[in-house]
Fold these 2 entries.
Entry 1:
Amino acid sequence: MTYGGPVHFTENPAEAETIWLLANWIWRHTPLDLLTSKRVVTTIHHIDPNKINKQDYLERDKFTDAYHIPNEKTAKYFPKEINKNKIKIIPYWGNDKLWTPSTFSKEFLCNKYSIPNNQLIVGSFQRDTEGFDLKTPKLSKGPDIFCEIVEKIKPKPHVVLCGWRRQYIISRLEAAGITYSYYEMANLQKISELYNCLDLYLVTSRHEGGPQALLECSLKKTPILSTNVGMANEVLSKECLMQGPEEFLDSIHSKTFDHSDENHRRVQKFKIENLFDQYMNFLKAT
């Protein structure tokens, strides 16, 4: 699919004029001779101020020509020594060719994936543990907040989980007697259909770049409530932005959480065809 150009991509970094590091940790896995001899763009998805390593940022800044970030919130946590003119804000895009409202009924899809359809179905599709220990919650993603909310929903919901490293939430759900369905290695097509099994998706993060679930739910017309992280205030209706567990619970128990039509209208400007050229022009200008 082509939206603009000409920008040519190669799998061989030695052939490239610009190296795009798609996550801030990748530079440690890239030969320094390439980083010092090429133009380098580094994407910083989000910064957790409780974990920031200032020296790491200053070391990386020695060879980074430009930074890409997806939202304004990330910019304020950069070390003050970094030239703010090197930072370019371009939002994430959503692929509306993949994330589309389902032509199948919720009942049909729940039956397909053996998900009970007689209780509130709540989803979470991102990792929740820190590192590889599979026990320590990744607090920037807010799995503890997610569990605090679902543990207090009356009557008990059914939770749908996707993705790797969901052991923290699973252990909390089992301790609370909350049923769940877990699809660890689901492909994108399955995830797309699982979105349409949900009554509600919850984003309970403390720090985020997107997350992509904001775009995916909005394109799918899946109801979503979120903390005001990352791109949430740009993508979602203000009625979907929650300040803490009690606000989440009030919206859930009062059944006032479905603003999917408004979210679908707002997300249109974040579709891939509306942002692709911004990325290409940024790479060419670096």
Note: The radius of gyration is 20 Å.
Entry 2:
Amino acid sequence: MRLFLGITCAVLLCCAAPLGAAELKPWGGVQPDSFELTDLDGRQHRLADYRGKVILINFWATWCEPCRDEIPAMEKLKDKFAGRPFVILGINADEPEARIRKFLSLMPVTFPVLLDRGGKTAKAWRVRVLPASFLVDPQGNVRYSVIGELDWSAREVADRVARLLPPG
């Protein structure tokens, strides 16, 4: 799985469009399976734990340049919705913990990084290219997806997230 994702990401890098060229598209697929993954501190995270919140689920890897490039924009989006029912879950694509920790020491994130050991969750969510992201509404339904690098700090993206947030 890691080799396939690595080759796919490398191919995309050759032809990659600039940041923000990917498009957040309405979800038209089958609802993906729920998941239960461990973070780097050993805490369990279940998708159901975040019911009532808008969730940005981002599949990524340290070796994927577009994945790395979009992290600062995701942090800006998280800051924009601070205090609101919005959360980002970064699901790492089956890399060794030591590599992830080293990467995060150089580029810290403020959202949970979950470990997809064996790539089972990526497979269940039909992730074939990195980065791959999904916006989930407060009821737990995938509403939007994007394959490739997106400028998460763009106003149109923030507007889509805001429309999914519960009133209040």
Note: The longest helix spans residues 65-80.
